[in-house]
Amino acid sequence: MKISDMSVDRISLDNKDLLTRILFNGIEDDGENGDVIFVFGSVSANKYRVPHAVELYKSGRSAKILMSGGALEVPEAISMKNRAIELGVLEQDIIVETLSKNTIDNVLKSREVLDEYFGLNHIKRILIVTTFYHIRRCYLTLKTYLPEHIEYSLCPAQDKSTRPTNWWESQQGTQRVMKEVEGLIYYTKNSKIQDFEV
């Protein structure tokens, strides 16, 4: 079954195993190096996403980090850049995209930035960093709007309440997962992102 064939009325804790499979199955870091680490912004990105991106950078997985996000008065990407510098990343190794307001926007606006900085034809692999429950949508969005030749490594950041092993144990985790799966159904049904088999 494809995600676009699902109905939102199936999104409940009665289908916990299905929801876990949709968001988390097959999501693991392959350990490959890439041209750039793409960090998706959020109001809490500095807590989980940026430190994980910095770990990847320091371990030599990529020499450049792209911070994407402009939703706040001070764009998320600027705050994320400042946090990464505090954690030891060289300023010249950070690229910022400060205009995007959502995940599809992150990709579309970042595509322009990446093309200007690297040339899209020269990018072979992107390391995706976001929270675990969000990474499926980010991956499908990148595959939808970036050139087909680009490969991806999925590098999920672990928050405390929305892990594959505990998301149903808290109201926050449950709400995040339900909303994310509903979003995947909506975006695939409306051909905004690539469909996928569940």
UniProtKB/TrEMBL annotation:
Signal peptide start-end: none
InterPro entries per UniProt: Cell_Envelope_Assoc, DUF218, Rossmann-like_a/b/a_fold
Chain ranges of the DUF218 domain: 35-156
Ranges in a coiled coil: none
Organism encoding this protein: Paenibacillus shunpengii
Pfam families reported for this sequence: DUF218
CDD domains: YdcF-like
Name the UniProt record assigns to this protein: YdcF family protein
PANTHER family listed in its UniProt record: DUF218 DOMAIN-CONTAINING PROTEIN, INNER MEMBRANE PROTEIN, PROBABLE PERMEASE
